[in-house]
Amino acid sequence: MQYSFYFPGKEEKPMKKSNMKKILAVMLTGAMAVGMLAGCGSSSKASSASGDGSAKKLNLMMWDGDCSEEVVKDFEKKYGVDVNITYIEDTNEMLSKMINSKQDYDVIDLESAYVKAFEDAGLLEKLDKDSMDNLKYVDQDTFMAKGSGPIGDEDFTYTIPISGPLYTCIVYNKKTCPKKITSFADLADPAFKGQICSVNATISLYAEALRACGYPIGSTDDKELAKAQELLKKFKKNVKSFVGSSALSQLESGECSVALCWDYNYLCADSEKYWDEFDIVPVTGLGYTQNWAIAKSSTRKDLATEFINFTYQPEEQAKTLNEYGGVPIIKKADIADKLADNYYDNPCVTKYTEMWKDNEMLCTTDEQISKMDDLYNELMSE
């Protein structure tokens, strides 16, 4: 984004200027208001039907591509529910809607880097996982092992992964990429001038640059950030276009031979021909997960729990995976026969799973974002 105050996740429309410090302050204030409203309103076990006996409803706020609308339709049909979907394009938008909108949200689709901030602000409800019998299908050892959850929710108390691991990483065309890439730092080489398409997410850019310089990806050290800034200035000279959402068109059209993006799973899902045409640089992968959570202010928590549980049925998971690709979190024995015959030959599935073993989770902090915001403004103004 312009000022992408968030994790290398999906992404962002051109951004409004804002400061994460102010955003978190608003969030904390809003969270207090949410708690007051919850206390004065209805109980956490409130009926999912409206008081006048009209049809049940559920308000879902999510990223496009994380859950197939076919799954939502199946849930509506089975439970007699009207599901209202609000699609978001950045986490700031989600936060604003949760605090300021007159709409009450039940289930939200939250990026892992923001789980701690939302939890600390009191915006999330503890999950009733005992009522989610479909979790038996999830490969717990790989994707929900104790202590492996998002920072701030390591034991999956408030969140559950929607799908397998995702990454912001360097994707390149094997035939047209001008030089071998072993690190993000290589993209500062003049040989890449006009060849790069990049996300404009602040955290993605600075985390990559910090790591390439040998520093922690969450560093707030001014000297280390200054070195990262030097690298990004050189990188920027080679970037043909910054994108707020997807780099697919630039890669698939051949406009750019390299991209720093989160699109490799979608690229591989678009066509098998891309399996051989493109590859990723694993050492540049910044991993993250998308997670279901229930809003603390929801008055339909039982129904929200039912929805989350419903999405883990193998046949429902398969609908999302066949439409959007990605790593299945359902055990192979339970879902393989519901996916395309060669689904597990997809290089995204094998590489993303292998990379997850050594993944380092990001977590946004007020101090880091505030400093990166200032640096980003400087970077883009030159």
Brief characterization of the structure:
The strands form 2 sheets. Strands 1, 2, 3, 4, 5 and 11 form a 6-stranded mixed sheet that branches. Strands 8-7-9-6-10 form a 5-stranded mixed sheet, with helices on both faces.
Question: What does this protein structure show overall?
Answer:
With 382 residues, the chain is of the alpha/beta class. The protein folds into 2 domains: 203 residues, Periplasmic binding protein-like II (D-Maltodextrin-Binding Protein, domain 2); 135 residues, 3-Layer(aba) Sandwich (D-Maltodextrin-Binding Protein, domain 2). 39% of the residues lie in helices and 16% in strands. The protein has 15 helices and 11 strands. The strands form 2 sheets. Strands 1, 2, 3, 4, 5 and 11 form a 6-stranded mixed sheet that branches. Helix 1 runs parallel beside helix 3, helix 2 runs antiparallel to helix 12 and helix 6 packs across helix 7. The radius of gyration is 21 Å and the shape is globular. The N terminus is likely disordered.
